[in-house]
Prior knowledge:
By secondary structure, the chain is an alpha/beta fold. 22% of the residues lie in helices and 31% in strands.
Amino acid sequence: MGKVVLKKxxxxxxxxxxxxxxxxxxxxxxxxxxxxxxxEMIMGFxxxxxxxxxxxxxxxxxxxxxxxxxxxxxxAVIRLEDQNITDLVIPEKVAYDERKFGVTDxxxxxxxxxxxxxxxxxxxSIINVDGYDVFxxxxxxxxxxxxxxxxxxxxxxxxxxxDKNKSKLIRYPEGKKGExxxxxxxxxxxxxxxxxxxxxxxxxxxxxIDMENYPFSGCSNLNEIKVSDENEEYTSxxxxxxxxxxxxxxxxxxxxxxxxxIPKGVTFIGHIAFEDCSNLTDVVVPDSVMTIGDxxxxxxxxxxxIIIPDSVTTISMYIEPYLIFHGCNNLTIYSTENSYAHSFxxxxxxxxxxxxxxxxVTIKILEGKDMQYSGSGDYILRLxxxxxxxxxxxxxxxxxxxxxxxxxEGLTIIAFFENYLRTLQEGxxxxxxxxxxxxxxxxxxxxxxxxxxxxxxxxSENNKVAAKTGDGIPHILLGVLFASAAxxxxxxxxxxxxx
Length: 499
């Protein structure tokens, strides 16, 4: 429609139409400008937001520690990247991409193989330490795990990590050396001492009720496990850990040496009970035992014989049975023919021999059994066996050089020389005397220098008393002789006078 025609039709309204048209055009222009501005703002905001968004699962590293986002404002420590750090202080908060996160968790394996690490400080913000494996694999020099005093979930004492009320011992530092006495009040340990190969002795308190999951696995220098007499769940005998009624052998310390006869009454040899006992040479299982648990003798590299009675009807329970004697390359199983142990040995191609090939006569010790040596003189063993049957002597499983002892003829008398005895370390030693048809064994305890001094002092004092008591004897004898002589003289004089 033409502009002239439209003007005639509208008449007087034409002017109003023209004004409205311009207004609409202006309004459309304004709207378009506003839309374009908003689009640009939205795009810019979206770009800015994309840069600022941090998703759960994102990882980042700050000052040698790698973190993982686990919440809107929380992160977990997942790995120590800087292997040169020795003393680590975990921060309460960490900044990333202009945002701050609270450090609340330490994830499993976070400090895997951190061999340079010697101490860790856990801040107040940590609410979850994700299992024993946080600190237990390869932290061979870790001496202290410390916790900030205001932490609500955890605490530490002497560098050992506990839950807040100290009822659960969570982790003993892998590199911490020597003996350790678990504080009274602790009720639970699980993998707390795994791979602590600098630990030599442990004392378990009366409060302990739960030690599942192999708490002393990998403690290669552990020589003794002691249990408080007040404990109602556990006990120990000669440094070996049992349940209270001694029906379960839980753990044989890895450093103990020589032959071991499991006590009569034990029915179950626990999982990994003898694992990594590299100084163990011979084991005698009593006829009370029915089950030998998983990996019970794994990596006992010097184990040469084990006597398994007919009472044993189960060897291993869950894991592959062959692992029970994994690493025992010099082992022979001794049992009766056609027994369960015999079948087991044949199935897993472990050398086997009948009991008659190993069961020797036990020789009686007549003198010198289970003695303490104070550092003076020879040590004498007298045995109820002819010396022509004598073979050799073992001290802690190692043959003793014949130059260090003598053997008499007739009934065997062995005299260990003082010079040799003084070379032995303080503490208990196992002596085994071998004959061609039997053996005798005993213990010899070398006393500490202080105890030796005390004994020598006591002997000296006794000698003084004896000397004082004996000092008067010659004088008495002289007096008696003098009186006798005087009497004889008087009698003789009277006879002369009477004559």
